[in-house]
Specification:
Number of strands: 7
Radius of gyration: 13 Å
Structural class: alpha/beta
Strand content: 5-15%
Strand order of the largest sheet: 3-2-1-4-5-6-7
Helix content: 25-40%
Order of helices and strands: EHEEHEHEHEHE
Largest sheet: 7 strands, parallel
Distance between the termini: 21 Å
Amino acid sequence: MTVVSAALFGTDWRPGLPGAVELLRECAARGWTVVLTGPGPDGAPALTVTAPGHDPVRAALDLVDGPASHAVAVAGSVREVVAALRAGVPCVALEAGADTGPELRAAGAVEVHRDAAALLRVLDDSLLARPRAFGPVGAGTGGPRSG
């Protein structure tokens, strides 16, 4: 299961974010359940949490009755990384917003990629392909990757 911040892919956020819809489609094609934590682009292969409240990652998990141990979050801000970790979900971050790679890593992101297209290029080697390869959330083993 992949929990994705819709802010990264929403049509009103940053039009044309490289690889955004392609990443969602590839995750869906692999049989992963994709849940957006807010409204996303039209035609994206994902469920949507429409009222995430204060804990959008937990709301996404609840929507599909999914355990945190089978989920990975994709986030674009320090706030979203922290929300994922609070829910017990490891996080891959994209440098698509105001927060920088070092800030995202310091917040606890296991990997940081320039954008969705960069993540898509290394998808098979990313945390999305193997959610618990780095051990428990926050274990710090393996070190963050850049894409």
